[in-house]
Amino acid sequence: MKQAHCIYQNDDHRWLAIARDASKPGYLIDTNEYLVMDGEQALLCDPGGIEIFPAVFSALSAECDPTKLAGIFASHQDPDIISSLALWLEFKPDLKCYTSWLWQSFLPHFGGSESTFVPIPDPGMTIRLGSLELQAIPAHYLHSSGNHHLYDPKAKILFSGDVGAALLPPDQGGLYVEDFSRHIRHAEGFHKRWMGSDRAKRDWCERVSRLEIDMMVPQHGAIYQGPDVQRFINWFAALEVGVLRG
Amino acid sequence: MNAPEKLKKPPRSASELTCIVRVNEEIKSIVATAFRINLMALNAIFLAKRAGNAALGFGVLSNELRRFAQDLTHHMASLRDMTSGSVGSVTGVVQQQRNSAILLQAIRLSGDGVPGVREARKRGAQRLAEQHGRLRALDLRLRAAVEETQQLVELGGVLARSAKIEAAYGGGFSPALMQVSTDFAEVIAQIKRSLEVLGKERLVKD
Ligand SMILES: [Fe+2]
Ligand SMILES: [Fe+2]
Known about the structure:
The complex is a heterodimer. Chain A is of the alpha/beta class. Chain A has 6 helices and 13 strands. Chain A has a single domain, classed as Ribonuclease Z/Hydroxyacylglutathione hydrolase-like (Metallo-beta-lactamase, Chain A, 4-Layer Sandwich). The radius of gyration of chain B is 25 Å and the shape is rod-shaped. The interface between A and B is medium-sized, with 21 and 24 residues. The complex binds fe (ii) ion (FE2) (2 copies). The site of one fe (ii) ion has 5 residues of chain A, from loops. Chain B: InterPro entries: Chemotax_Me-accpt_rcpt, MCPsignal_dom.
């Protein structure tokens, strides 16, 4: 059963990671959902697929009042990211969904109407949540052609979507990366195959290197902390991507 | 928990969607039969012309049967329009039921007292009731239209019987005319059966 873990707290500014669903059927990829809260408002990053909605909803409700949910941030259009949209709207019809302008007319196939979507332009934008100014950071072609990450400059947390994802074996179920070189083996195949553009990758590495990041939180796998963040960026910068095999 | 197992059970509306498919298939078969009557009537008109004075009455009836086939085709076209619209309504119900079921499951997992869930369930139930209401109205219209078509087909039956009587006066053409009018009667009986099936279908189960 999924559980919400508090990974950052400063007064009523909080980040929750909803991770590790042992009861989920094996044919579904495991995902992490993140909730950013500031005071009376909350934003859910990559809320996940239809099948896991009950687990995510109950984990979230255990830690916060779900009526405080003001918006959803969808890093891109994949089903494991946002196919649960209609269900969140079923619960709260006035939710806003922030996503790349590229997917603005595609995501309504999962649910929502014209007023649901707030298109994020290619260079990114500021998303206000309570007193926070969250930054949608461009991550196009990593892997989706319209893709953003979310940076919280106050908490120094970067939500990195599929970048940093690792498909971990069941015996490595920890929430945080403990041994980088052991961990990264489970990320290599995924990044080589899923990340399609070397140029986009280099751009992203440069862009996020300029940010102050204490924690990089991906949509699959474990959370990178402290020096592991830069370790990941360096590793990714050197990795050959867009390869079918090897 | 075994959430996906529970969700695999087809919602009630899945059978409503199946029902619409059956209705459409029945309509298609009636349309095909109406087309056959049209051709049969054309042949009968030619036959009656060849038989000349001996088959004047039969010729008139053949013309009437041809008109009947055309009316029937129109009736079926409007029935088809109705059901094609209903696919949208049924799909709406299916989606709403699925969403409500998953939300209910989420609420159960979360335990009572989670803020906002009562309102969400109420909204869902309301939307479902509206969609069901639309389907019910459509169902009534469909049934009324089927009844109207049944009356038309009664008239077709009378025409076919009269054609049989006229065939008896067809002189040398009598066996051929008799054969044609028997075919008419059979085809109309077939349409009657299809309409009976159609009349029993319900888009909404109460
Ligand atoms: Fe993805
Ligand atoms: Fe993903």
